[in-house]
Amino acid sequence: MRRSKPRVTLAAAVAFTAALSVSTALPAAAEPGTADSPLTAVIPAPAEVEADPGADYRLKPSTLVRTEPGSAAARAVGRQLADTLRPATGYPMPVVPAHGPANGISLLLDDVGDDLGREGYRLTVSPRGVTVRANTPAGLFAGSQTLRQLLPAAIDSDSRQHAAWTVPGGSITDHPRYDYRGAMLDIARHFHTPDEIKSYINELARYKINHLHLHLTDDQGWRIEIESWPELTTVGGGPGTGVDGVGGGFLTKEDYRDLVSYAADRYITIVPEIDMPGHTNSALSTYAELNCDGVAPPPRTDMAVGYSSLCIDKEITYEFVEDVIREIAELTPGPYLHIGGDEAHVTSEEDYRTFMRRAVPLVEKYGKRPFGWNEIVRAEPTTDTVAQYWGTATEHAEIADAVERGHQVIMSPANRTYLDMKYDEDTPLGLSWAGYVEVRDAYDWDPGAHVTGVGEDAVLGVEAPLWSETLRSLDHIEYMALPRLTAVAELGWSPRSSHDWPSFRERLAEQGPRWEARDAGFYRSPQVPWAE
Ligand code: TNX
């Protein structure tokens, strides 16, 4: 290989990746000291990559993880990185303050420029070591996720592996396209335990997703403890409250706080959702007084949607809503509180408007930024309200008008980002109301130009929702999320100019052995040339 220093932006990286594909195919041990994946083999694609094939760095038993002196947050990022590198390498990887000349892995807080922002970073690999510099610890965390992907796939194993732990030489300068890169997990249709949620959080962090939206309540179940209305969970979180009467459970406040902090350690913000005024049968069937006729309907665990509504004309409805919003806001350090608002088919338009005009200000009263599914804009709420677009159309007057009025939008078009849609007709799990969503469908669209009138500046970010009517276990979650989650992660992070399906599928192919190394299940899409 020539020892030139090709400067490649990702737009031009495809050819570069292809040029290196011969060495990529070789097992790491075949070429000791040579990186087995190029600097560009990262998802999401970094903004700028400058390869220096003569400057590889190989981890050694003596490698140190050096972190910014005096920064507890940088040290915590260093500890997490060391924890992830130790099992497969078997090296001790001590975490020490970065004094003296750089050697080993260094995580340094530095002024890397406004362009790189809060989450950007610069990563340089030379024969002396790997240095990540960033404006904030969030940038160091993002850079350390990139570093993991630059090491051989075996690094993700939790037992000792024999490989040449080589990082390809050169430098990466990287920062996100959108501030909000999200995933949603529905723990209402089937409850998923805190450990399962943590496992999903780990997966999100690897791909630089920085928000986890938890769909906490729905017709079938109520999955978050509310002290002022305690039966919501004792009944709505009880056994048999999952779809088809399978499973049950809920998060105590302690569980939720622990998840918030686990996510925060990984630079992920929890966005809680309490869906209203529809999708509320579990509350209505628990507290009779919330119904207009004072009669509690039976609990339901079928998959129908749009049949329930809080009672718009009763004052107790707003006492209930305020109590719930207050308790959730108190538990949630993040800026957003999602109040759903979708599929309120049995609420009249006028009632919907009346309801949202009282609910939205309550979110603000408790210091949170209101967030709702796109229907919420019909109520003309404060323009600070974030609208989550889940339609399948690329023309949508209501959302375009809302943007005109000043709303920001999260893009979750169902036929692109819904991880619960089947991949194809043979997919054993999932639904298909928005069509089949293969990996390329999830990747090949532009969030900043997808819906007429919803341009780049109006887009706060992207989110991949995972509804769980058909999903009962972590295996099910992984099978539906992987690999499509990575496509949405790339759309949220990587520059528009890097968008390139041939490059993405090649890089995605390299993720397969990583998922295998960490025992995560995934769908082997025929669209991807999976690596051995
Ligand atoms: C639509 S998307 C819903 C959910 C379902 C989902 C299934 C949205 C805002 N509402 O209630 O779980 O489809 O794909």
Features:
alpha/beta, 532 residues, eight-stranded mixed sheet, disordered N terminus, binds ligand TNX, single chain, eight-stranded parallel barrel, globular, 32% helix
In short:
This protein is of the alpha/beta class and 532 residues long. The longest helix has 18 residues.
Structure description:
The protein has 532 residues and is of the alpha/beta class. Helices cover 32% and strands 16% of the residues. It has 17 helices and 18 strands. The chain is globular. Residues 1-33 have low confidence and may be disordered. Bound molecules: ligand TNX.
Radius of gyration: 24 Å
Helix content: 25-40%
Bound molecules: ligand TNX
User: How would you write the strand order of the largest sheet?
Assistant: 1-2-10-7-8-6-4-5
Report the span from N to C terminus.
24 Å
Number of helices: 17
Which class best fits the helix and strand makeup? alpha/beta
Query: pLDDT below 50 for ≥5 consecutive residues: which ranges?
Result: 1-33
Which whole number gives the mean pLDDT? 93
